[in-house]
Amino acid sequence: MKIQINRITMLLIITAFIGVNYTNFKYKSYIPGIALVLGILLTSIHKDSSISQHTKVWSSKVLSYAIILLGFGFNLNNILKAGLDGLSYTIISIVGTLILGLLIGKLLKNDDKISTLISSGTAICGGSAIAAISPIIKSSHEETAVAMGAIFLLNAIGLLLFPIIGHQLNLTQHQFGLLAALAIHDTSSVVGSCMSYGQDSLVVGTTVKLVRALWIIPVSIIIAIIYSKINHSEQSQGKTKKPWFIFWFILASLSVTIFPVLQTIGAHLKELGESFFMVALFLIGYNVSFSSLKAVGIKVLFQALSLWIIVSILVIFALKTGFLN
Q1: Distance between CA 292 and CA 227 in Å, rounded?
Q2: Dist CA 205 CA 187 (whole Å)
Q3: How many other β-carbons are positioned within 10 Å of the β-carbon of residue 104?
Q4: I need a surface site. Which of 57, 70, 79, 242 has the fewest CB within 10 A?
Q5: Is residue 108 part of a domain?
């Protein structure tokens, strides 16, 4: 028990240090990657299953609170404009990614449920989409874990790699925000990569990604209908996890938009939200174990990787040709 308490204490100290020092750190653009890698390294040295269960819950809650706090730094008019401007290509990209992902899964002869989870996670918002859809299609814990493992691995790579790609391609802040929102799976990695690139890209990337996350609900309903027709004897009765934090994010933005006097306080709350994101990334990294990644399997990983690369290339092409702006 004493050893376990010491490990928890160490985990909390590192987490608090990352959060408190983020906003004042000279090289803050490196912090998202450092936080994630630090979590991965810590769990690779020694992973405690009891602590891991707590950090999974903490990471989800901290991430939700971080998104809400970020809302205090955004003008609602800008959010609505970005959401409406991105509505058409959001629909096209979600439908296209789902179809392409399922097709790749068929060609590789991957398990249908795992293929559906990976395609949904890539199309919408990574782990959140997988968590929402897995009970609907009645996937096993192993199938869900395999899909999560593949997506988490690509999330970690995307967080570190995309800012480098953006600078190499001379993408503007707006262009990089769109690239991150459309090509990176989880909201946490989108925000982390955009923070590294710049504040303007953070506004675009976060807004477009949150609008995209709302599609969990209609996509889940469609998948439930399809699976219920395919499996007449096995009706899909899983419940969809609703992203309520998006509602509070919009409400926070509405408050500073209607009452400009709150903007100074809102700026500080936004900084606190950015610190919370670094904490969430560290906790997420703590739950990425090399053993779980080994269990993913080469064909499943190839499906996730190839789909991700194709989507990323298409988004970059669309940005460079002016189709997305």
Answers
A1: 28
A2: 9
A3: 19
A4: 57
A5: yes
Contact present, 207 and 253 (Cβ < 8 Å): no
Q: Distance between CA atoms of 162 and 252, rounded to whole angstroms?
A: 29
Q: What is the pLDDT of residues 248-287, one digit of tens each?
A: 878 888 898 898 888 889 888 877 877 777 777 777 677 6
Q: Does the residue 20 lie in any domain? A: no
Which residues in 226-255 are b (16+ Cβ under 10 Å) and which e?
ebeeeeeeeebebebbebebbeebbebbeb
State the sign of the Cα–Cα–Cα–Cα dihedral 40, 42, 48, 54.
negative
- Range name among 81-90, 110-119, 259-268 with the lowest pLDDT average: 81-90
Question: Please, are residues 150 and 300 in contact by the beta-carbon 8 Å criterion?
Answer: yes
> What's the rounded Cα separation, in Å, for the pair 231 and 266?
50
Query: Does 51 map to a domain?
Result: no
* Token pair belonging to 140: 């096993």
Quote the DSSP letter at residue 185: S
What pLDDT does residue 68 have?
Answer: 82
> Which pLDDT does position 247 carry in this prediction?
77
Q: Which residue has the tokens 């991430």?
A: 63
How far apart are alpha carbons 279 and 62 in whole angstroms? 7
Range of the domain at 71: 61-320
Name the residue among 137, 122, 140, 127 with its Cα closest to residue 224.
137
Domain count of the chain? 1
The Cα 117–Cα 144 span in angstroms is: 7
Whether 278 is covered by a domain: the verdict is yes
